[in-house]
């Protein structure tokens, strides 16, 4: 439904996760009988969660810990871990910075060049632990570093930006041809973010294994105030899920995974993202809250240290639980920030669904908070 904003402009009504709720049906289940596993390409994970490629969320060690718990941790291959041999003191410094100087100092730290040797070394560390190795580059850096990433043996390659399109136009530089690039690679690619049916359909046609919905950042993002861009996530996930259905018809059955990326801060948001059609969710602030997260009580993304136009900030987060407790409990609060998987299982069981694919069909209502 379009709303008339004025005589010269109309806008479509869109909804966030806070605006919708799921509805129980006639059947319930035991939570122990519910499966939260999902598969992308040749890889199966016990939980539909990806750790966001942010230095405050995923380090090589965190990626290993998450992998052992059935979660895919994605390392930021443009972060401190590929710029410095030992970034631990720098992570601690960022956590100690006063708010008024944090952005400027982070810009200086992230101005250090990316070192291909460190990309290879970090991926090798993760692979050596026997877990799935995933790394992320922005579209601007992909052409420069992808060969290093692939040769290092990455299992899943993520191309993640504020907005990623299959039709980037530039008069000053060679644009990344995603369709040619993805088909030439020997590893599955997850790409995004997108927020519309049309943009998602174009990305699916490139051969991507998964599409990220949203622009990431979430709690640490200021994209809406800086650029005027915002993706109400309930509507966006539903739109991209519809694009997946249309692409399946168009391609003769090829399934592209939909991953909600941004605006997923609590267990209730995870539940509603999957109810709207997501196969998995990418978490930032939810995992940054863990006492063993590398951010040391703070959370930030790439946008926070952009050299010329920061579109994010370093935010303080409350740390009271380990990564394992955040994901699997036991919960010590009732605010949806711990035992994320227990809450998902409970919601699926309460509405009578046994796996994630079934749960995507759950009834939802528009129930906005005033």
Architecture overview:
GO terms for molecular function: IMP dehydrogenase activity. InterPro entries: Aldolase_TIM, IMP_DH, IMP_DH-rel2, IMP_DH_GMPRt. One of its GO terms (biological process) is GTP biosynthetic process. The radius of gyration is 20 Å and the shape is globular. An 8-stranded parallel β-barrel has the order 6-7-8-9-10-11-12-13, surrounded by 5 helices. The chain has a two-stranded antiparallel sheet with strand order 1-2. A two-stranded antiparallel ribbon has the order 3-16. It has 370 residues and is α/β, with parallel strands linked by helices. Residues 168-172 have low confidence and may be disordered. The protein is built from 14 helices and 16 strands. The protein has a single domain, classed as Aldolase class I (TIM Barrel, Alpha-Beta Barrel), CATH 3.20.20.
Which characteristics define this entry?
16 strands, Aldolase_TIM, NAD, oxidoreductase, GuaB3 family IMP dehydrogenase-related protein
Backbone shape: globular
State the end-to-end CA separation.
20 Å
- Read across the widest sheet, the strand sequence of neighbours is 6-7-8-9-10-11-12-13
Mean pLDDT: 91
CATH fold name, please?
Answer: TIM Barrel
H/I helix tally: 14
Show unreliable segments. 168-172
Residues in helices, as a percent range? 25-40%
Give a count of the beta strands, DSSP E runs of length 2 or more. 16
Compressed to H and E, one letter per element, the order equals EEEEEEHEHHHEHEHEHEHHEHEHEEHHHE
Percent of residues in β-strands: 15-25%
Radius of gyration: 20 Å
Biggest beta sheet summary: 8 strands, parallel, barrel
For the record, the CATH architecture stands as Alpha-Beta Barrel
Count of domains: 1
Helix-and-strand structural type:
alpha/beta
CATH homologous superfamily title:
Aldolase class I
Output the CATH class name. Answer: Alpha Beta
């Amino acid at each position: 439904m379009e709303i008339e904003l004025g005589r010269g402009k109309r806008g479509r009504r869109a909804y966030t996760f806070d605006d919708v709720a799921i509805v129980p049906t006639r059947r319930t289940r035991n939570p122990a009988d519910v499966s939260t596993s999902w598969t992308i390409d040749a890889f199966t994970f016990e939980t539909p969660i990806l750790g966001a490629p942010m230095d405050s969320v995923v380090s090589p060690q965190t990626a290993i810990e998450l992998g052992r718990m059935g979660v895919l941790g994605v390392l930021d291959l443009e972060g401190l871990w590929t710029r410095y041999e030992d970034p631990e003191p720098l992570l601690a410094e960022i956590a100690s910075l006063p708010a008024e100087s944090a952005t400027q100092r982070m810009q200086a730290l992230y101005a250090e060049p990316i070192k291909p040797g460190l990309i290879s070394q970090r991926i090798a560390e993760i692979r050596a632990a026997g877990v799935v190795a995933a790394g992320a580059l922005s579209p601007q850096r992909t052409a420069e570093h992808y060969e290093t990433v692939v040769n290092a043996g990455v299992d899943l390659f993520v191309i993640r930006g504020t907005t990623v399109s299959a039709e980037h136009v530039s008069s000053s530089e060679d644009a990344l041809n995603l369709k040619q690039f993805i088909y030439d690679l020997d590893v599955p690619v997850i790409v995004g973010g997108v927020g519309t049916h049309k943009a998602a359909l174009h990305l699916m046609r490139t051969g991507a294994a998964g599409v990220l919905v949203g622009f990431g950042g979430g709690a640490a993002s200021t994209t809406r105030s800086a650029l005027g861009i915002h993706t109400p996530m309930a509507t966006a996930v539903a739109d991209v899920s519809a694009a997946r259905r249309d692409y399946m018809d168009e391609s003769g059955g090829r399934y592209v995974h939909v991953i909600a990326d941004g605006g997923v801060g609590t267990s209730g948001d995870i539940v509603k993202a999957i109810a709207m059609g997501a196969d998995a969710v990418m978490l930032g602030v939810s995992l940054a809250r863990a006492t063993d997260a590398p951010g040391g009580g703070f959370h930030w993304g790439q946008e926070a240290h952009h050299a010329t136009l920061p579109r994010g900030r370093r935010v303080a987060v409350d740390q009271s639980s380990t990564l394992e407790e955040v994901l699997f409990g036991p919960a010590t609060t009732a605010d949806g920030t711990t035992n994320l998987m227990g809450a998902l299982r409970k919601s699926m069981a309460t509405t009578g669904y046994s796996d994630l694919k079934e749960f995507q069909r759950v009834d939802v209502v528009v129930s906005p908070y005033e």
